[in-house]
Amino acid sequence: MSELPIYPMLIAGQPVLAATSFEVINPATAAPFARAAAGDASHVEAAVAAARAAFPAWAARSDTERSRLIGVLAEVLQANMPELMRLVTLETGKPVDGLNHVGAGMEVGGAIAWTQVTSQLDLPVEVIQDNAEARVEVHRKPLGVVASITPWNWPLMIAIWHIMPALRAGNTVVLKPSELTPVTTARFVELANAVLPPGVLNLVMGAAGSEVGPAMTIHPGIDKIVFTGSTATGRKIMGNAAATLKRLTLELGGNDAGIVLPDVEVKAVAPKLFAAAFHNNGQTCACLKRLYVHESIYEALCAELLALAQAVKVGDGLDPACQLGPIQNRMQLEKVEAIAEAARRQGGQFLCGGERLPGSGYFYAPTIVAGLDEGSQLVDEEQFGPILPVIRYVDVDEVVVRANRNSNGLGGSIWTRDLDRAAALALRLECGTVWVNEHGAVQPDAPFGGIKQSGLGVEFGRHGLAEFTSIQTIKMMKA
Ligand code: NAP
Q1: How many CB atoms lie within 10 A of CB 230?
Q2: pLDDT of 267-322, one tens digit each?
Q3: Which residue in 155, 169, 190, 222 is deepest, having the highest Cβ count within 10 Å?
Q4: Beta partners for 24?
């Protein structure tokens, strides 16, 4: 009998264990630190039934009341921050503070901030026409039951991004975390169920390869799926969802380009570029994943990035001095190794890294690769790890075309002191968000989402909230 704690599912307000459970690994040690109940399709069935039963009463609550309860959830997150941060570090490997303060503190702090902002959002009735002839109103109504499927890189924050607007708009939720990182989410859902009515927020979990995710995507009792994860899984979900015409928000992979113009101050931008690429070991959808640098500053910027990579402290995220933790799972570590091998074969010059670090955990040295162009795997595909290609360019107009020649379209950035030029270039980049002189900084009131193969729809702010509603138009003739 294992002595590890077993995290249950939560259905209709009740903790639910299953016949079996699965191990949750701490990537800093490669050893299990917890277990999670291994659900199956019958648990999806029960959770959807609970969410459907809870929906009418939750949708009928006043907007003010739902706003108040979501505000209480922010307080609950705040009150439990130390425990949640520790769980985030144990299951993701993310340091407590982290490079550029991107760590477990930011994950839980961000969850609180997004919850607070979402509690204050609203979608008032829009009056299109109101004259002697008629009044035309546009109402936003909840969709019903929303399924949330989350990845392993920011498990709590992304669950919050999904759940809060769904609940705020009057939907009920069935949530499935990644089998690699179910623990923080399970603890949060337990805490939230002390505040929310039973059935409003349900949690099901599945072991690797389980039927839980697919069962959710085909279930006729689910009206919408909000999914964050890989483009490959997004395609499968979209296919499954077609039969019941579910609404979809898909936040998928990215291969964000950063373009550094020749007028930057190299020493000043290097730490920002480094952090944008390497925070959370590059395992963030909107990390900077391809860095294009003008030839006039290429060598100087490479030298600065190399110095930063050599100075960064990699280790167990529970050590407060540590800036980067391990890669989150063995499969991802092997994927990074394979992409590094491809970069070697394709002529990449490794300025540093390119190998695992000693220890039992999934540690990989921060790696910078010069000398590659489009057509190499490291430039063309999302690496999702601590390995950055730095690509030389000559002509700014040409580099925009090169940056756009990629199937992803999540984010991008321009680095320059000339803000007018940056604004013009930003409009030419094919991606959902363009940052100027920063990269990847999302905020709870500004829409964020991918175009091309990076996804469908947006999250955050009023635009994101609207995605959890359907429109009802009411036309009243007055004469
Ligand atoms: P993933 O392998 O696609 O898994 C994501 C979630 O989907 C997990 O909960 C997974 O469950 C579930 N899933 C897998 N197959 C499924 C199926 N057939 N039907 C329903 N659900 C299924 O992604 P990941 O490796 O966890 O995350 C990394 C990817 O996410 C990267 O590509 C990254 O860029 C992307 N991402 C995008 C954003 C964004 O906002 N655009 C944000 C963060 C991450 P199991 O784990 O239990 O298999």
Answers
A1: 15
A2: 999 999 999 999 999 999 999 999 999 999 999 999 999 999 999 999 999 999 99
A3: 155
A4: 34
Give the active site residue among 91, 179, 285, 322: 285
Regarding the beta carbon of 203 and ligand 1, being less than 6 Å apart is answered no
pTM of the model: 0.97
251 belongs to the catalytic site: yes
Predicted confidence (pLDDT) per residue in 77-102, tens digit: 999 999 999 999 999 999 999 999 99
263 plus 366 within the same structural domain: yes
CATH code where residue 95 lies: 3.40.605.10
- Would residue 291 count as lying in a domain? yes
How far apart are the C-alpha atoms of 418 and 403, rounded to whole Å?
20
Is there a single domain that holds both residue 262 and residue 394? yes
The span from the CA of 436 to the CA of 68, in Å, is: 36
> 299 and 247 in one domain?
no
Whether residues 178 and 36 fall in one domain: yes
Number of domains comprising the chain = 2
Alpha carbon separation from 115 to 59, 60, 105 (Å, rounded): 19, 21, 15
Ligand 1 pocket test, candidate residues 44, 157, 233, 383, most atoms within 8 A of CB: 233
Enclosing domain of residue 360: 256-443
Instruction: Spot the catalytic one: 251, 304, 459, 467.
Output: 251
